[in-house]
Amino acid sequence: MNDPQFDSARARLERALRYRQEMGSIARREFKEHPPIEWIRNERDAAILCIKAAKPVPLDIALVFSDWLHAVRTALDNAYYTLAIVETGQDPPTNHGRRQFPLVADPNKFGGNRLSGFCDEARSIIEDFQPYKMRGGKTGSALWWLHELARMDRHRSEHFFQWRIVDLEITFRGPYFAGSGTVCSQQAAFLETGQDLELARGLKSPFQSVDDHPGSHVDIDYRVELDIRDWYERCFSTYRWRFDHRLQSFESEVAALISRFDEHCQTFH
User: Residue 248, Cα to own-chain centre: how many angstroms?
Assistant: First the structure.
């Protein structure tokens, strides 16, 4: 049975889920109304598949993402503050002005005043979620990225969203094309509004006329999703999941931490 002391933290996570769903709704509507512009540039020796964004991603996406970051980060800190109340036996807890969930990339920096008043078991739980415990270190840590993205959102500006090509599949059919052609890396397939992205290049068979229509000889399938290019490129390689999956990992990590705190507090009493 859940300890009601952590109801506020869990409610903040539920609100975060609604923000994430709102982002998805805005993205689907935007894609339906303004799909990417794609065409084939027909050259003598090759057909080049190009694509670009029809318009910039609306600011509403970044603003809802800001709300999502705030909800998840405050859920984390609220749960940590609740734990401090239980551990110190007073409300507000000792050192209450520094009771923000600690996140460090260096194990030598773990501890200090923020953990004063916690028993060894509580400290161990907190340490289990530190960035240096994660594969890839901080850039593979959901909680470190939560802190970093929320910090940038608060103190710099809203995050810049772009469409990214995912699940790209292209087939150049013979005999019109010679070979399978080349396809762009999905690691870098971000769409710009005023700049063409070369999705693929198919080499024509030497027997084809430049006046032929290569589009009828190409099968192309892809999906697009929103992402933040700077975040995606800085992530540890095995953490470059789809954008929505990364957000879900934040929520799951905080939910798991809240559950650990809850279980500890019920046995602590």
Answer: 8
Q: What backbone torsions phi and psi does residue 118 show, to the nearest 5 degrees?
A: -90, 145
89 burial class (0-12, 13-18, 19+ CB within 10 angstroms)? exposed
Residue 68 contacts residue 14 (beta carbons within 8 Å): no
Predicted confidence (pLDDT) per residue in 176-233, tens digit = 888 667 778 777 799 988 888 988 888 888 766 645 677 778 888 888 999 999 999 9
162-172 and 218-227 beta bridge pairing: antiparallel
Residues 6+ apart with CB under 8 A from 8: 78, 82
Residues 6+ apart with CB under 8 A from 39: 50
**124-158 as b/e, with b when 16 or more CB fall inside 10 Å?**
ebbbebbbbebeeebbbbbbbbbbbbbebbeeeee
| 3 state SS of 27 | helix
pLDDT surpassing 70 at residue 2: no
Task: Please state, as a whole number, how many other Cβ atoms lie within 10 Å of the Cβ of residue 269.
Answer: 7
Buried b (16+ CB within 10 A) or exposed e, 34-73: eeeeeebeeeeebbbbebbbeeebeeebbebbbbbbbbbb
Residue type present at position 201: R
The dihedral through the CA atoms of 5, 70, 88, 253 has a sign that is: positive
For residue 68, give every residue at least 6 positions away whose Cβ sits within 8 Å of its Cβ, in sequence order, or none: 16, 19, 20, 23, 247
pLDDT digits (tens, 9 = 90+) for 134-165: 988 899 999 999 999 999 999 889 999 999 99
